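One-letter codes give the sequence; the fold follows as C-alpha cells. An example follows:
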Amino acid sequence: MDWQTFLSKAGYRLSEPRKRIMKLMEMADKPLNPLAIHRLLREQGVHLGLVSVYRTLELFFSLGLISQVFQPDGLVGYLPVSFGHHHFIVCQNCHKAVEFLGSEDMQELIQRIHSETHYQVRDHLLQFYGLCPECQALLENGDIN
C-alpha cells in the first residue's frame, strides 16, 4: 500500500502541503530535517509555514510513514520508509542514507535487556554508519580522509 492510500485509510486528508512534503522526501537521497524541507519548498515556490512542516512530519512519523535518521553531525532528519521492519545505514562523509530490511533475530538481546533492567522492550532503533560506495572510491583515490 502506498503512503497516500495509507494516509486516507487512516482517516487523514490528503492535503496539498502533505503531498508536497512527502513528494520532496521521496526524491531525497539524504535525510531531510524540518528546516531543509521548509527551505526546499520555498525554493519551489511553496510558501508553507515551518510549524506546518513540523506538524506534518510529526503526523507522518506517528503513522510510521517516515523514520528518524540520526546524522553523524548530530542532526535528525527524516526519510520515507518501507512498511515492515527496517533500518538505515548513513554515510559518514556525504550523509546519504540507505534503508535495508531489519532482522527479527534480536530476541536474545531483547530478553537479556528485559532480564537486566525489567523493562518491557516495545521498540528499538538500530542504525549503522559507514562509507557509501562513492565515498569509498574517493577514499581510495585520496580525495577524502
